[in-house]
Amino acid sequence: MQPWSQEEVERYRRQFSLNDVGEAGQYKLKMSSVLVVGAGGLGCPVLQYLAAAGVGTLGVIDADNVELSNLHRQLLFSTEDVGQPKASKAQEHLHRLNPHIQLKVFTERLTHENVEKMLSPFDIVVDGTDNFASKYLINDACRLFNKPLVTAAVQEFSGQVSLFSGAQGPCYRCAFPAPTPLELAPSCADAGILGVTPGLAGLLQAAEVIKWILGTGDSLQDKLLLFDLSKMQQQLLSLNRDPECILCGDHPTIHSIKASQEWINKNVIECTVPQEDARNVSVQSIYPQWQQGQCTIIDVRSHEEFAAGSVAGAKNVSLQKLHDPDVIAELRHLSRTQQLIVMCQRGGRSQRAVQILGHNNVVSKSLLGGYDAWLRHASQA
Ligand SMILES: [Zn+2]
Fold it and tell me: Is the pLDDT of residue 261 over 70?
């Protein structure tokens, strides 16, 4: 065991005196390397506490710049950092916090092409991202390359934290086999968030990393911790490996990062059009007009979906029927007197439908969030 400098002895004095850490534990921390994906609301506290605790090597991946609206929850940064790259600013601040650690920063995005190279030098991975494409990619890579993963997600006042071993037991996909509907996805709705929510989730992630390295305490491995700060409630759920899981189940279909990316491309609709614009409208905007009979809802879901529940007065024209010239002609005629609002279940197919109609000179708008968003709004209206 290498001797500690006087500075380090003093710096870590309160950890040296902990039974669960001591000099041996501090040495384990020093010899460990942790990769934190995302230096945002989750990543900031993770990085700050791991750096302060003396984790020897910290990796930071973040391609974004600091924005003013980040500062209420990303306390690693300050006002003068606005507009600067997060990764390099994180490096600067963390080095000032603890000059005894190594920092490896990456200002590029984590992709299926670089994920293996990024993950391989590190012992454990922390997911501090806020979108499903990244979460599935990180989960799949950790499983395929056998890296423990501490993951978290937050929204408004509530959060969740889990640890997956990488080698066995369940994975993130076992708990979340499909992404949350588009409008509920964490980064999609531009949802409000209390600064302390990711702060707390990030602290829990940091605690899990430290305990994992030290091999001490009861961890969140194969568990899902849910907390709600508005009600001050928490729940601890046990997770089991799902035999049907396409990654870690009995008959997996994802055997490579390439297959993972193909699944993500097919199943995760990124929220590139979350805002209202010429082709997209929210339920909140259109609902009063619908109540006054000023628009017609075109529901492009299947007959079965439509029969299971639909908006009063909506016309069911499944996506396939939009290739029928007679149907197009009828819709074009209707669009001369009525605003056409195209709806599906979650807002994905309706965007495609609006495109098809547009190519046929029929003006329409896609309903953001689809029938699910409509139902939620109607129940509150
Ligand atoms: Zn799984």
Answer: yes
How far apart CA 365 and CA 298 sit, in angstroms, is: 10
Residues 6+ apart with CB under 8 A from 277: none
Distances (CA, A) of 62 to 38, 101, 130, 153: 5, 19, 12, 17
Q: Which residue has the higher pLDDT, 238 or 184?
A: 238
User: Measured in angstroms, how far is the CA atom of residue 156 from the centroid of ligand 1?
Assistant: 27
Query: What are the structural domains, with CATH classification, of the chain?
Result: 32-267 (3.40.50.720), 280-380 (3.40.250.10)
Residue 139 CA, ligand 1 centroid: distance in Å: 9
Please provide residue 366's backbone torsions phi and psi, each rounded to the nearest 5 degrees: -90, 135
Cα 150 to middle of ligand 1, angstroms: 15
Distance 169 CA to ligand 1 centre (A): 8
Phi, psi torsion values for 160, nearest 5 degrees: -145, 145
Three-state secondary structure string covering 173-190: HHHCCCCCCHHHCCCCCC
Does position 377 have pLDDT exceeding 90, yes or no? no
- Report the run of H or E that residue 151 belongs to, with start and end: strand 149-155
Ligand 1 centroid vs 56 CA: distance in angstroms?
30
CA of 109 to the centre of ligand 1 (A): 24
At 154, phi and psi to the nearest 5? -140, 155
* DSSP run (H or E) holding 125: strand 124-127
CA distance 147 to 117: 13
Q: Give tens-digit pLDDT for 296-330.
A: 999 999 898 899 999 999 999 998 899 899 999 99
Which of the four pLDDT bands, split at 50, 70 and 90, describes residue 2? Answer: low
C-alpha of residue 190 to centroid of ligand 1, in Å = 29
Among 68, 225, 244, which Cα is nearest to 150's?
225
Å from CA of 140 to ligand 1 middle: 9
